[in-house]
Structures are given as C-alpha cells and as structure tokens.
TrEMBL record:
One of its GO terms (molecular function) is ABC-type transporter activity. Coiled coil: none annotated. Signal peptide: none annotated. GO terms for cellular component: ATP-binding cassette (ABC) transporter complex. InterPro entries: ABC2_TM, ABC2_TM_bact-type, ABC_2_transport, Nod_factor_ABC_transporter. It is found in: Cell membrane; Membrane. The lineage of its organism: Bacteria, Pseudomonadati, Nitrospirota, Thermodesulfovibrionia, Thermodesulfovibrionales. Keywords: Cell membrane, Membrane, Transmembrane, Transmembrane helix, Transport. Its main location: membrane. The keyword Magnesium does not apply. This is Transport permease protein.
Length: 255
C-alpha cells in the first residue's frame, strides 16, 4: 500500500515538474480557449440575439472552461506514448507497484495540470462581465477537478492502445473535437437534432459542462441546464471508475 502511494506521488510530481518546465505547452494550451472565448464568443455575441438573458460570450464561458479541461486532460495522456517510446513505461511496469497506482497516478497528474489551466481561464470572469462569489469559484473548481480526472482517465484508456505519437494524434482529432461540439459548450443541446442528442448523452463532457453551468448561472437554470445536477455528478464519477477499471485491465494484459 505504501509503495503504491509513493508511486502515485512520484508520477504526479514527475508530470507536474515537466509541465512547469514546458512553458510553451502552457501558453499553447491556453491560447485555444482564449481565442474561442474572445474571438468566436465576441463575434457571435453580435450575431446571436440575447434571448437567453445573457451575452453569448457569458453563455459559452462554462463551455470554454470545459474545453480547457478536455484538451489538457486528454493530451496529458500523451505522456504515456512518450514513456512507451523511450522505455520509461517498461520500467514502471516491472516495478513492484500495482497497475492501479500507475493509472491513478497518471490520471491525477492530468487532473492537477488541467485544473490549474481551468483556474487561469476561470479568473477571467470579471473581464466578460460575470460576477462569481467565492463559493461559486470553489464549486466550479470542485467540478473541474472531478471532470479533469474523468477525462484524464479516458485519455489514458485510449493511449494504452497506441504506440506512436502519429496514430494517437489522428485518433484524438476524431474524438476530442466531436466531444467538444457535442457537449453543449457552444449551444444548448436541446436545439440539436434527435440523432445528435444521442451522442451528447453518452459524452461525459456534456455532464461536466452542464454541472459547470449550474455553478456559473445558479439563478438561470431553465435557460442553461439540460440535466439534474445529481445526474451530472453521478455520470462523471461512474464514468471515471469505468475508465480507470478498463485502463487497469489493459495494463494488466501488457505484463
């Protein structure tokens, strides 16, 4: 048990140090949500009538936080591909620690990095005219943490099946962008056709962004929310457990 906890700590510390040293990675991952928030959101605010009682830029703010978490969490799992190519993964697999500790350590490291980036985006709320209390900020960070863990676990699960950066990048483009556009980040999912609504309901990001909307807009639930908050939290937690269990089983088969 102690060796597993040490393994989790070492993995999280290693990935965090790598993130701190790679300043270009931080800048590049923050550039995408900032462009979407101020360029796309700002432009669409002039075209979309404010029927929902708020500017479009404010409406997509929870979705932009979700976007930051999605890209950061999923792409943090690239470290697994890196570890495979340079042999570090073999060293971890032969170490006297459980596969569960490796998967949880990787997921927690992705959670830490993603939550920090989500916090940076969250602190922009005064610029777009939002007013958030300290309790709201705390709840948004709490949702960000569990959503980051869920999506990091999904990224780890996907990364276990790939051996090179090239194949992983192609697959991620076919998964990450559809996940974002089918999450309700840019528009209410109630407006989508029934066929696409099915895919939104099997997308864990949908429930994460819906939960974030609860925290950002606590007084405008009928206009912005699609599911009960209890359902949002339950889906994210259960999805996290499923992703971790499957990822651990895949690692076990690679003994």
């Amino acid at each position: 048990m102690k060796s597993d906890l040490n393994a989790v700590y070492v993995i999280v510390a290693r990935e965090f140090i790598k993130f701190v040293r790679e300043r270009g990675r931080l800048i590049s991952t923050l550039a995408r949500p900032l462009l979407w928030l101020f360029l796309v959101g700002g432009g669409m605010s002039r075209m979309v009538s404010p029927d929902m009682g708020m500017p479009y830029m404010q409406f997509i703010f929870p979705g932009i936080i979700g976007m930051t978490i999605l890209f950061s969490s999923i792409f943090s799992s690239i470290s697994i591909i890196w570890d495979k190519e340079f042999g570090f993964m073999k060293e971890m697999l032969v170490a006297p620690v459980s596969r569960f500790s490796i998967v949880v350590g990787k997921a927690l490291s992705g959670t830490v990095v993603s939550t920090l980036q989500a916090l940076i985006i969250l602190l922009l709320f005064p610029i777009i005219g939002l007013k958030l209390s300290a309790i709201q900020i705390f709840l948004i960070l709490t949702i960000s943490i569990i959503l980051s863990f869920c999506l990091s676990s999904l990224g780890i699960l996907i990364a276990t099946f790939y051996e090179s950066f090239e194949s992983f990048s192609v697959i991620m483009n076919f998964i990450v962008m559809p996940m974002f556009f089918l999450s309700g980040a840019m528009y209410p999912i109630k407006l989508l056709p029934h066929v696409l609504s099915f895919f939104t309901k099997i997308n864990p990001l949908t429930y994460g962004i819906d939960a974030l909307k609860y925290m950002v807009f606590p007084e405008k639930r009928m206009l912005t929310h699609d599911f009960p908050l209890s359902l949002d939290i339950s889906v994210i937690v259960i999805s996290s457990l499923i992703f971790v269990i499957i990822a651990v089983n895949v690692f076990e088969r690679r003994k």
